[in-house]
Amino acid sequence: MTFLEFKNLVSKELDLRLDAYKLNRVERRIFSLMRRHQVEDLNDCYRRLQEDPSFKESFLKHFTINTSEFFRNPTSFKFLETVVLPGIFTRNNKVKIWSAACSNGSEPYSVAILINEMGIPPDRYEILATDIDHFVLEAAKKGIYNFQALLRVENKIEKKYFARVGEDQFKLDDRIKKQVQFEHQDLLKEKFSAGWNLIICRNFFIYLTKQGKDSLTKRFSRALAPGGILFLGNTEFIFEPSIFGLEKLNGSFYEKSS
Ligand SMILES: C[S@@+](CC[C@H](N)C(=O)[O-])C[C@H]1O[C@@H](n2cnc3c(N)ncnc32)[C@H](O)[C@@H]1O
Asked: Residue 132: which residues within 8 A CB-CB, separation 6 or more?
């Protein structure tokens, strides 16, 4: 079978919108997984996906790249802390924040830490965090991280919000954990709720085709409240934000026109 045929069958079998992802990246990841599992060809791969649940699990895990860390790209988080969040909390009494494709939770928890440091009471905001990968969501709910994930956490923040629970394991404080609600969601298929003051979707657009990115940008823009902010990854840009009713603020921050 050709790769295209395989991709179409697998999209149905796994209920994934593989078309929105960049094809050569999808292809590279699938062939590397096949080599690792000594799968002969695409027919064999498809058969294994149908018959072997543990292979299916590896396939899904391999496909979604979960790299994340607290305060990833500190300069952007500084801008979030000093400009974006203060502006949002001044303009709105109740604030809705959504971390889309949140991976292991270090991104939404970083935001919760910043808001706590601003002294804002928890009843003024809600933070939703979603991802397609059930495994990372379970890890996120546990809130236990290794040293690598905490590399960009300042000492005073680490002391205040993390407790060492093993040789290389740090547990996030329950006060922060309970401020983030995790849910499973496929960004390419499921409907979005509206009224978000801040949508954070970082390091996910890079995996999508131009069409996939445009469609997601349009849907995010609709989901933002007027004046709401979209925060992308440091290598992700929207070339003509005005088409989507957005205006570039700074770096990877875009504001929805009121
Ligand atoms: C590289 S991580 C980014 C994590 C975090 N936003 C950051 O920048 O540190 C990409 C995440 O996208 C998730 N993902 C992939 N396809 C998805 C989809 N269709 N819907 C929702 N999440 C998806 C993966 O499971 C992974 O956790």
From this structure: 64, 101, 184, 185, 186, 187
Phi-psi domain of 192 (left: phi exceeds 0; alpha: psi -120 through 50; beta: other): beta
pLDDT at 63: 77
pLDDT mean over 95-112: 98
CA of 217 relative to ligand 1 center, distance in Å: 15
Residue 100 and residue 37 share a domain: no
Among the atoms of ligand 1, which is closest to the Cα of residue 17?
19
Ligand 1, residue 72: give the atom nearest the CA: 9
Residue 69 lies in a domain: no
pLDDT at 61: 82
pLDDT-based confidence at 75, cuts 50/70/90? Answer: very high
Tell me, yes or no, whether 100 and 216 share the same domain. Answer: yes
Tell me how far the alpha carbon of residue 90 lies from the centroid of ligand 1, in angstroms: 30
- Domain with 154, as residue range(s), is 74-256
Which residues does a 6 A CB cutoff place in the pocket of ligand 1?
Answer: 64-68, 72, 101-103, 107, 131-133, 136, 185-188, 202-204, 233
| CB-based contact 182:112 (threshold 8 Å) | no
**pLDDT attached to residue 254:** 98
61 exposure class (CB count in 10 Å sphere: 0-12, 13-18, 19+) = middle
pLDDT above 80 for 242: yes
Is the distance from CB of 133 to CB of 66 less than 8 angstroms? Answer: yes
Total domains in the fold of the chain: 2
Shortest-distance atom of ligand 1 to CA 68 = 9
| pLDDT value, residue 25 | 84
Residues 121 and 176 in one domain: yes
**Residue percentage of the chain with pLDDT more than 90:** 82
Kindly give the distance from the C-alpha atom of residue 186 to the centroid of ligand 1, in angstroms, as a whole number: 10
Residue 16's pLDDT band, with cuts at 50, 70 and 90, is confident
